[in-house]
TrEMBL record:
<protein>
    <submittedName>
        <fullName>DNA polymerase III, delta' subunit</fullName>
    </submittedName>
</protein>
<feature type="domain" description="AAA+ ATPase">
    <location>
        <begin position="44"/>
        <end position="188"/>
    </location>
</feature>
<dbReference type="Pfam" id="PF13177">
    <property type="entry name" value="DNA_pol3_delta2"/>
</dbReference>
<dbReference type="InterPro" id="IPR027417">
    <property type="entry name" value="P-loop_NTPase"/>
</dbReference>
<dbReference type="InterPro" id="IPR003593">
    <property type="entry name" value="AAA+_ATPase"/>
</dbReference>
<dbReference type="InterPro" id="IPR050238">
    <property type="entry name" value="DNA_Rep/Repair_Clamp_Loader"/>
</dbReference>
<dbReference type="GO" id="GO:0006261">
    <property type="term" value="P:DNA-templated DNA replication"/>
</dbReference>
Amino acid sequence: MATKRTAPAGIAADQPALARTIARAAESARDLAAGRRPRHPAAMTHSWLFTGAPGSGRSHAALALAAALECEDPDEPGCGRCRGCRAVLGGAHTDVVRVAPDGLSIGVDVARDEITAHAHRLPTVGRWRVVIVEEADRLSAAAADALLKTVEEPPERTVLIFLAPSTDPEDFSTTLRSRCRHVYVPPPSLERLERILIEEEGASQADARLAAAASLRHVGRARLLVRDRSMQTRRAQVLNLAELVNHGDAAFRAVNQLVRSVDKEATDAHAEADARERAKLEESLGRGGKGRGVAKALRGSAGAIRELEKAQKMRHTRRKRDLLDLSLVDLAGIYRDALMKRSGADVAPTHPDFAPLAEELAENVSAAGLVACLDAVATCRRHIAENVQFAIATDALVGRLRLAYQAR
């Protein structure tokens, strides 16, 4: 006989509030589907907003709710064992759709053609149609407006789940926020993340502990830190920048090298996939074919190829932006460690392996200067998000850091 779970499948035992929210929603959803009075009247809604820091597990939480809604076990919603749960958690359930942006934003076309269109289809094999919108902070204002009616008046058997970093108006539409139930997804504990890295990635305990701390409990980033040498190298590269700030032009050369390495990594990681995508499009348009009409068809295909090139360029820019932003988060971490040391706070460091550098910064830069360093990094991150050229934004960062080091 199977042991009953203490939390819905996909939710850890150390996340009791999240587990309770999902379990009650699933139980009430079953009552509604059966025409009964919900046992938890306020627990179920059609529109949700899951927030949490990057890597906290927002996507896993959304899938856990979807699995609990589609679960076929009569007694335990979200059992994790039935066909419905396995299909949802394995990404194979036909009634659970995940919409993820390829470009820098989610535009009106995606909002209407993917999110709204999927939301208005009836479930085929499950009880509910679930549409999960990844990175909903990328919704443009026009796209959010286009979704408003669907969020306000969703179909009876549809559930919309938006995922965003926070409820801040810069992260998610205020108008949509007021029409969604908000659920905060906390990051995993350091202990749980260490166990994940040891059991699933084969990391040593020391490496797992370092990756869990340095990633700020970001599961995906921690996995990369224990298995991807380029990620480890780039982290060391950006942290060493803090030591080079007052060393002539060394800091400018280092930050320019960082931008180049980010660009190369973003290009190399997806070059084959981009090439296959283009080849597939060209083949579908008849390139390489023979016979009457082929040449004419190819002349008319230039627009489609240009559109693909534009989409690939936008994806490339987004990858570069995301990689550089992660590096800037690392840089902020070393200044945070230095500020904690200078203030005498008994707080675990973000970068324990760079403790000597943090101590050096704490001795040589004032508390006001370290705060200014954190502000400088935040400004650079904002500029990159606003499409300032990377080289200009990062050179300006070095200039601001130099001024901050001199603050008294």
